[in-house]
Write a structure and sequence with these properties.
Blueprint (H helix, E strand, L loop, with lengths): L14 H4 L20 H4 L11 H25 L9 H20 L4 H4 L3 E6 L5 E5 L3 H10 L2 H18 L1 H31 L2
Antiparallel strand pairs: 1-2
Length: about 200
């Protein structure tokens, strides 16, 4: 029942599946003016033949930085006083909520409708979670990599929760508490399953 949150080499979603997979090779339709191909998408010699959507990464990084900057500017203009610190209990609560929300978005079967335009189903893992892999090129592929990776999503989810905590701490604690309760429930389910397997031999 152990999870491997990141795809491994040679397994679904790993490098062996991403490079040269059917319908994803760089062909004539992917070449830019002058037949130069997707040089920036493959990032020169950075990834040794693996497609790396650098422009897509730049768009996502710019979106993240821009949204954070806009939020900070609006808070500053509103004259709102920010919290002087985050108590340890709130930090744990926000951490648990970030963990659970990230896994829900990246691995849950129901949230596949969010990932489907950018990923394809590569397999199913335990506890009704799925393993998706990115598809397409450029921004689409970069978005697929983000949505299929709970570790990558954690930065976005954590930032959203911290922003919420800064302007509406009570409401954010309530949301984080709900997500934290689900995370605790997950671990209790694992503990129950483990105990049941041990009891049944």
């Amino acid at each position: 029942m152990a999870f491997n949150p990141l795809p491994e080499e040679g397994k679904p979603g790993g490098t062996a599946d991403r490079v040269g997979s059917a319908g994803e090779s760089v062909g004539e339709g992917d070449r830019g003016p002058g037949g130069a191909g997707r040089g920036d998408e493959r990032a020169g010699g950075y990834a040794q033949g693996e497609e790396v959507p650098m422009r897509g990464y730049a768009v996502l990084a710019g979106t993240y930085a821009g949204a954070t900057a806009v939020f900070a500017l609006r808070v500053r203009r509103s004259g709102r006083t920010l919290p002087s610190g985050v108590p340890p209990w709130d930090l744990l609560l926000l951490g648990a909520a970030t963990y659970k929300a990230s896994r829900l978005l990246a691995k849950d079967k129901i949230t596949s409708l969010v990932r489907a335009p950018f990923t394809r189903r590569a397999g199913t893992v335990s506890a009704s979670e799925v393993m998706d892999e990115p598809r397409g090129h450029g921004v689409r592929r970069a978005t697929g990599e983000l949505l299929a990776c709970p570790f990558c999503l954690a930065a976005w989810v954590g930032t959203a929760l911290v922003c919420g905590y800064a302007v509406a701490p009570r409401a954010t604690r309530l949301v984080a508490g709900g997500l934290g309760a689900v995370a605790i429930s997950d671990w209790l389910q694992y503990a129950w399953s483990f105990t049941q397997e041990r009891a049944e031999g």
